[in-house]
Amino acid sequence: MNTQLLLASAVLALTAGCATNTPNAITELQHNHAMMPVSGEPKYNPVMNPRQIEHPNVMGFNDLHIQAIRHLKPDVMSIEDPKLHAIVHHHCKAYDDGTLVCLMFPGGMKDQDKPIGFEYIIPTAQYNTLPAQEKHYWHYHKTEVGRACATFPDLTKEEANTILPTVHETYGKVVYFQKPEDKIPLGEPYVLIVQDMPDVKK
To answer: How far apart, in whole angstroms, are the C-alpha atoms of residue 92 and residue 121?
Structure first.
């Protein structure tokens, strides 16, 4: 009798285990499928990012690449400071409301690179609605794109020329949570006032 009870308990346990594992297996399969890139036509804001396509949410940013100097806080306010000449890689997602959000990397976006800040970009019309005190934190891209020697390395010359007029009529706010030389974020986040950076061009 005890043997029969033990066998019955074992069968129930196995059945319960299978019932529990089945949804997990399905969920894992769905999760793996969701992580696969989805091809298709450009979505969101094709004017600001002609290469952007829709990916599953788990894929993260997707991806207008901008390179710019004068986007790191110098150790000394001198045109000789190497941080002013360092390229900061902006990996941006363009939204259909005309805004962009760019994760900022000091060395590209390879597998082990970590972002150190972000730039939030808004159209001029939205900037004009900001309080005067807030406007101080934003830089005008029609002025700063040239001063930062900004380039679009993944776009053709024709694509870059097409989006530049729209980019010029935007403002950016740069927020850092980590210095590039630090291993982890230390201290308080800060806003970099890009327009106050020394002009490195001769």
So the answer is: 9
Of residues 188, 192, 160, the one with CA closest to residue 175: 192
Give the pLDDT confidence of 160-174 residue by residue, as tens digits. Answer: 999 999 999 999 999
Do residues 44 and 74 lie in contact, with contact meaning Cβ atoms separated by under 8 Å?
no
Which H/E stretch holds residue 126?
helix 124-127
Structure tokens at 172: 């950016």
N-terminal to C-terminal alpha carbon distance within the chain: 95
User: How far apart are alpha carbons 141 and 158 in whole angstroms?
Assistant: 19
**Cross-strand pairs, 104:** 90, 117
Tokens 């403002």 appear where? 171
Bridge partners of 159?
none
Contacts of 37 (CB under 8 A, 6+ apart): 55, 56, 59
Nearby residues of 35 by Cβ (< 8 Å), 6 or more positions away: 56, 58, 59
- The burial class, CB within 10 Å (0-12 / 13-18 / 19+), for 94 is buried
Q: pTM value?
A: 0.71
- E strands along 18-164, which residues? 64-68, 88-94, 100-105, 117-123, 139-140
59-98 pLDDT per residue, tens:
555 678 999 999 999 887 778 888 999 999 999 988 888 8
Sign of CA dihedral 57, 124, 106, 67: positive
Nearest to 192 by CA among 170, 181, 168, 176: 176
